[in-house]
Amino acid sequence: MSAEWQIQAADSWKISLPCTKAEADALLDDVPALALFHPAPVLMTTEPDPARPDEWRIDVYVEGPPGDDLIAAVRSLAADGGTAPTVEQLEDQDWVTRSQAFLQPIRAGRFYVHTAAHADAVPDDAIPFLIEASRAFGTGHHETTTGCLEMLDRIAERGISPANVADIGTGTGLLAFGARALWPEARMLASDIDPISVEVVRTNMTANQVPEDAIVLVAADGVDHPVIAGGAPYDLLIANILAGPLIALATSFAAVVSAGGRVMLAGLLASQEAEVVAAYEAQGFRLDDRHQRGDWPTLLLVQQA
Question: What is the dihedral of CA 48, 28, 253, 259, to 10 degrees?
């Protein structure tokens, strides 16, 4: 985690607002309402009470007292405009470290994803990854990331052993780490459209003792990069992004996946599945496996020879 994120709570404030699960899910992508503020606010969504699965909370952390414009921007993230956000100054401690204690470990197949706050509770039979909350998506706490880890485990259990893997839209790098743990001899590439995510992956590689040369890192829009093209064809291409980009990238993904190779797609809702599958079937893929957590399916499609 970079130094700019180690904000001390004496100068830090939190804006909180209740929201629905659907509104929280919509905040997985970039949030234009907050993008123009500097220093950049940090947004987290949580489910305070599992017994009330549709009642979530938005927490926005900011350095210095928030202005009315930022409070209004946070208020716009939830449809219930009648609920005013609460604003509080944090205690004199590192709020990032404090927030990690509320991110519970995730068990997904043979994988165990945790923060430093739970590093002493790793099961003996698990493949552990230390992933702190950061500026990149993919801590393992959303159903899309958890579903992808479980699908990777299912692929390995089927005896499939890809030799060349690409994780497109890697976020924190977690899925690339999982693939490397399952297939340590495979060539690994991880890319993201956001250069910040690439730096987050480098930090996470160090934290998880992944050698610097074990994963090729690229900042790229989709697969439009000479390093990605030069590494093709891929036996397994992972993309945990959103339904719209998945559909738009179907043709370019097909061009870099080997005959008999697979794409693993996530970030789409079940209601969007038919449209996503149709886009890939038009490129010569067929659905090979699917796995669903909540409203979020993970799809595995194989390229026809």
Answer: 0
* Domain CATH for 268: 3.40.50.150
| 18, 83 contact by CB (below 8 A) | yes
What domain range includes position 17? 3-98
Q: How far is CA 252 from CA 96, 187, 257, 275, in A?
A: 38, 20, 9, 17
Instruction: For residue range 140-170, list pLDDT tens digits in order.
Output: 456 788 899 999 999 999 999 999 999 999 9
CB 146 within 8 A of CB 297: no
The answer to whether 4 touches 25, Cβ cutoff 8 Å, is no
pLDDT in tens, 263-300: 999 998 899 999 999 999 999 999 999 999 888 999 99
Give DSSP secondary structure letters for 11-27: GEEEEEEEEEHHHHHGG
Statement to judge: residues 181 and 240 lie in one domain:
yes
